[in-house]
Structures are given as structure tokens and as C-alpha cells.
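## tool: complex_structure
## caller: assistant
## args:
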Amino acid sequence: MSFQVIGKVLPRKDGIAKVCGQEVYPSDIVVPNMLYGVTLRSPYPHAEILSIDTAAAEAMGAIVVTPDDVPDVIYNERTVSIPEKTYRDRRVLPRRARHVGEAIVAVAAETEELAFRAMRAIKVEYKVLPPVLDLDKAMDPGAAPLYEEIYLGDDKIEVRNNIACERIITVGDPEAGFAKADHIVEREYELPRVYHHQMETKTAVCRPEPNGGITVWATTQTIHNVRQLLGHIFGIPLSKVNVKKLAIGGSFGSSIQMNSIIPICVALALKARRPVKMVSSREDDIYDHAKFPARIRLKVGVKKDGTIVAADMRVMVDIGAHQINAYPLLGCMAGWYASLYKWRDFYYEGRAIYTNKVPACAMQGYGNPQVNFAVESHMDIIAEECGFDPVEFRLKNYVGIGDEFWGQGPTVKSIIKSCGVEEMLRKGAEMIGWANRRPHHEKSGRYRRGIGVARGFHTSGTGGPKPGEVIDYSSATIKINEDGTVDVMTPVMDLGGGTGEAAVKVVAEVLKVPYERVELSPVDTKTTGYDVCTHATRGVYCGCGAVYHVAQQVKTKLLEFAGRILEENPENLELAYEEEKNVSIVHVKGFKQKQITIGEVAKLAQIYSWGTIAATDSLRQKNCPPCFVAHFIEVEVDTWTGIVKIPRAILLSDTGTPINPDMVAGQLIGSLSRGMGYALYEETEYDLATGKLKCNGFITDNKIPTSCEMPYIDDIQVYFAHTYEPTGPFGAKGIGEAALNSVASAVANAIYNAIGIRFYRTPITPEKILQALEGGGKVGN
Amino acid sequence: MERRWIKLKVNGKERQLYIKPNELLLNVLRNELGLMGAKYGCGIGECGACTVLVNGRAMLSCLILAVTMEGQEITTVEGLGDYDRLHPLQRSFLDHGAVQCGFCTSGMLLTAKALLDENPCPDEEKIREYLRGNLCRCTGYTSIVKAVKEAAALMQVEQE
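## result:
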């Protein structure tokens, strides 16, 4: 299919501002007369707050907000699930600290320095409670409870054995399925807590308005959910709450919920009756959120011919001190599992456990990299034990075209209509030289190389034929200016991946307008319709799906006005891009001489007082197509130091039509880096005696990949499958989260192929490799 | 704390500032001069987002007391180029997809500038080594390294 701008490499709309230091992030917002806010955070993992003495701080001129000063509203900062499926357990400031680093008191003063001094002058009397830091002991009858009761929707519910929530799903008859199996493999996997490490720490600025409302500039992936929640917590009509859309300095899921400092900032600003700005320190930020860890027990039954007949997965997630999105996570993990391979009869059990740790939330993949690591390791184990080729075994059993895909747990499903799995596995195998891959026992010497494969996917959004437990739709407003340029108003956040450019390209393509004549408008929640969030890899498929839908309406209006001017039936008219003049025209079908530029149509519509050629609408996608990926990764293990290098990586993706091919490649390569971190380096470990992070909130002690660990430029190859998603804008699906999901799995499989040791836990650090090698190569970790 | 006058050059302009001796260069640039290109990412020299050039050398402005900058010459990303006269590095970052969220970009550009001033045609290994103190969580660095390499080649051609 040939397009005017879709699939072309064009400069990002925010690019020049970003390379000139002119792009505005929340931390760059300065409001006249603003105060600076900081928070006092709990030094204990579990403690009741008996008293707070703020006198000394207030004597210094500071404004102080304590748990007594915030509305007594218990909420969940993530409002994507329908209300009756939303667990609520937190207040703006708690009366009981449930993790080290939980904000207890907030302080605002004329300068940041004064705010810190005032914060230090506050005295808090704690009653220290026994903490729950070990997942294995959290459910013991004797374990200290984090909560006596929480809310599910409007219902108060009791919390037993620190089990926050659970989901159990059975499809078919797993027991009968296993009975048919010739071979059964069972293993346990463990994936760590990881810090998002977005480059900008979470920030909020709030200005109280003279009408009793507030204006908020904050780090978020969802301006509309922040707006609704702030209105709810502080009892402000939504017409008086305005949340601005700004650039975001990285997110990776860390801001799909309303960040904890946003309502704290609002509380300070309302009390001070002045604007307040809060920028989290890096330490505060590391103590604010983490990726969901997971312990996964997986059992799979397979027949001699390589057909899978049954599976059983049991998941335990240590969610930390609050439920942000644990319940939908458990559902999604079931969905990622159900949609990887045709298990036929299967069982799933997921449990989320409260502990006195930093609350876990979504991070690129939302349970998918965890499930993928277990399943894709398992596929290799079965293949080896049964003598199947890992690629062929996957091809025999994968969930593909015509199959049901669980895009968001058991309630959001659709039928797969585009699928590049086979193309990617065949092509990747050819590119990496799979046929020449040697088994680990043929390798020796200090440096041993291995090749690993893993495949995965992510959903594109959370749409479906009928409403499920998750809200999903997006809105857009588009107008044609009187010179033929176009303004696009979309509430969809661009997290850096190019969703904004994709929106512009979709509009340019529908209206046949040059790319440089379409611009994104600065918007906020007052000027846009609702968009749920840039999460679930939905930016392009759902966000730009809505943009496509509205652009079609604008086109209809444009043709109608053009019909009046040209005295033609609009049905006889069509749009075209005139390359020589670089303009968009409306002309009579088959008779291009009778034409008018769209700028002339818009200008005449204004002069004749017909109105502006514009439209506003919302759209819910009726599908959630999977965007597939495959990774073929080569590793080199130094058996003397345990250091793993990645000499080569083949990254394959099926995103349907790649609207921004350069940025799809950027997502794949960026995800390779984060996946390497997940596989080899990263974990936020706890000191089980104090409940503090071993890294103490420092980046240096929580290593993420730098420029030096990446494969060299020419050693990374990217490949796009040739697919077209019939339900997506110009055939597009998502890519964002998918790009990461099978990286760590492929690395672990490659390490096995290099040294013959199967690792069941990440990160696979040099220490763990040496330990395993010293254990005679038999010890799996 | 008593404020002091200091004189320094920022992006080619003489500036006089009346500042407290405990103020960090990063905060002075952002809050006093409104130069928001240098970013706060950690405040303790771990991430490189606040990198600026001091007399042509890449330095972390979050670790420098502004009063020590008396008589020094500072370049921030705003001084590297402007939207209508981009520095070849800025152009190259745009052309090679080296910008995603953009929060590390200013620091990356200035570190790269210091590198190319020191070594006009570094190989890939040298570029990786030089940039290792600047963290990026979006791009996986590859596009950034490539952008620096291509900018170096372009600048060489322009000089010849």
C-alpha cells in the first residue's frame, strides 16, 4: 500500500524544541508567587503515626499539611478499571506508614531550602509496628496485617493473610489435559522488583484559581484521570479542575496512575492559597514506585508430536504497600499466559500480596515480561527435554491468526486478524544463523557464546467488542485553518515514542495535507474530550484511532463545503495531494482540472459564514490486536568473571503498518537496553531488617545499562513483519510494551545455550553465573 | 547566608549574578537565568542530565557551587544552537532518532560537544566511553552514538 506520509521518516514535531532545551516538562514550570514543597517520609516500613508537631516548621513561615489536613477520602490512584472492580486503600497522606519512604507530612515555603529546613524541624512520634517484608512469611497467620479492611468499589472488604486480591481462571479441563500428556515439565521462576528509572523525577505544580478551582501541571500519562481524581478527592467540580498536557521526561508506566505527590501538592496549594511546586528528589522517586515482581510456578504438558495439551500457572505478586493496579494485573497476566500458546486446557491462579515495600505498579509490559520469561524459558526446556527444535516447537503451538486474544485479562478479548509470528521466527532464524547453532556441551574455553530465541506480544490497547472491566476510549478535535493548515487537539500523552507524530501523520494522510502543515495544539483537560491513558500500548492504535475517526468527519465536512463552492455533489469529490505545489486540493473525481485547495475552501467557508471545518468526537476501538515481537539474541559469557555481553541482537516486530518506522526501531532498541537491564543487572533489593532499599535511593547502586553495555550499532538489526491490521489506523497496531516483553527471555535462553545453565531468576548477575559455574554447572538459579 | 556578586559568561554573554554561596550552578541557571535546558535528574552527579560546558569541558552543574564560576565561561544547550541555526549535533540527533522523551538530550548534546572538541573523529568505542556518564532510559543509546558519529563526520566534511 502506498501512502503520502504514513511510514515515512519525518522529523518529530517536538524535536527542535527538545534539542534546543526549549521543550517544557513539568519540572520547568514556573508560576508567579509560587512556593516550593517537600515531603517528610517515613523512616519505618510499618508504623502508626501518633502525633505530628508542626509548630517549629510553622514558626519558620512554612505551610504544613498533615494527615489531619487532607480530605478523608480513600481512593485508588489508578482509575482505569470500572469502579466496582477498583480496590481502594489509600489517602493523600496516611495515618499509618506502610513503607519506608511513604510521605507523611508535606511542607511548602518560599524557597526549597527553607522548605527542607522546615521539614527537618517537624517532629513525628511513631509507634513502630512489625513489618512484613518477606513474601514467604506475608501470608502466615501470625504475620502483621497491613490492612484490616479496604474497599472494593463501594463495599468494605476484609483483608485476610495480607492477600490483596486474587484471580482464579480455569479453561476446559486441565486435569484431563495433563492426563493426555506424554511429558510434563514444571518449574518455578522469579522476576525482580525493578525501578522504572524514568529520567525526570515525578513533579507537580498546582495553582489555586480565584474561582475556587485548580490548575495542575504534573508528570502523568493521563491528564483526564488526574483531573477526575483530584476533583473527587478535593470536592472540586470538574469544570474548575484543569490539568495541562506537557512533555514527560520518561515514564515506562510509572505515571499511569495519579502520582502520589500530585494530590499532596494540591493539598499544600489549597492550604497556602498560593501556587506550589514539588519536584521529587531521586531518592523520593525510587521510594515511590517499582515494577511488579512475580513468582511464577508453571507446569506444561506436551505430547510426543510437540502438541501442547495442558498448562497450569500460579502467580504470586509482592505488590508492596498499596494496590495501584494489582487486580487488573492478575487478570492481564492470565491473558498474557493464555495468549502465548494454545494450551488447550489450562488453569491460572494469581495472588497479590501486601508487603511493607514500595508500592508496585505497571512498568513496560504490565506483567507480560514476567509471564514471558516463565513461558519462553519453559518452551526451551520442553524443547530440549523432548528433542524439539525451539523455533519449530513455538511455531507449532503459538496463538495466531483467527485465534482468540486476551488483550486485557479475561474480560477484554478479540480475534486476531493480523499476525507476523511465522514470518518473524523464520526470518530471525535466518538472520542469526539458527541452523548453525551448536548445543552448549560443544562449547568450552573462557568465553562461550550462545544464541537464544524468545517471542512475545503485547496488546494494542484495551478495546473490545463489548465493555469489559477496563475503560478504553479516546477523543480528538481537528480543525482546518483558513490557510489550509490543520490543528489537532489530542489529549493522548506522547511518552517520547512518537504518538504525537503518528497523530499528525494520520491526519495528514486522511486530509492529504503535507506533514509540515499539520500541528499539535497545546491542550489540557478543559479543551479536550476524555482519553483514558497512554498505557497498554494504545497510543497509536486507540489514540490515533480516534484521531483517524475524527479526521474522517472533518473530511466529510470539507467535501460538503467544497461541493457547495464547486457546485458538485460531495460524493463526486475527492482529496489529493499536489506534490509540485505542496498543497492539498479537493477535485472532481476523474476530472482534476476542476479543483480548489482546502485552504480556499476553509477561507470561503469563513467569508460566507458557513463555519469552521472542524469536528470533535470520541472513539472506542472494538478490538485489541496483539503486536507481536521476536528476539534472537547472541550472548558471550565470560566464565572467569561471569560478565555477559551481547555481541548481536536481532529485533523483529509486527506492528502492522509502522507509522513512524524510525521510532518503532527506536522503541525496539530502547527496549533491548531495558530488557538487558531486566535480564542482567537490575533489582531494587531490600534490607529485610530495616525495610530500606539496599541502593538507598541512589542510581549508582541500582545499575541500569549505559552506552557501553549495548551491542555495537552494526550488531543490532531490526526487522518489520509485513502485516496490515484491518482494524487499525492505516493498518497500524502498537509496539511500545511488546518491544520489551521477550528480551530477557531470549537473553536467558542464550545464556543456557552458551554455558548449559538454566537461570530461573533475573537478574542473572555475574555473581550468580559464577556461583552456578562453581556449583558444577548443575545449579539452576 | 550572605549573597555575593559574581561575574561570568553564559552562552557568550557577560552576566552578573547576586547569589548565595551555597547555590548550585544548575539551580542558578534554571531559576535565575531561566535557562531550563539543563535538567535535574538526581542532584548528586549520577545521571548527567544537568551537564553543561565550563570553559568547553563537560561538567555536572548539580555538583558545582555557582560562586566558584567567577570569570568562567559556561555553555548550556541554549547556547549550542538555536532553532533556526542548529548545531550539527542537534541536527544529527533529530535526523537519527536520538530524541525520545528528550530529558537526557541537553546533557547528551553537551557531553558530545566536549568530546568532538577534544577528538573530532572518535570511533564508536570512544563515543560510548565518553557518553557513559549520561544516562538515557528511552533510546538504548544506539541512536545517540550514531548521531554523534554522523555529526562528527559531517563537521569534518564542513571543515575541509
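## assistant note: Helices of chain B lie at 25-32, 77-80, 88-95, 105-118, 124-131, 142-159. Strands of chain B lie at 4-10, 13-19, 51-54, 57-60, 73-75. Handing back to user.
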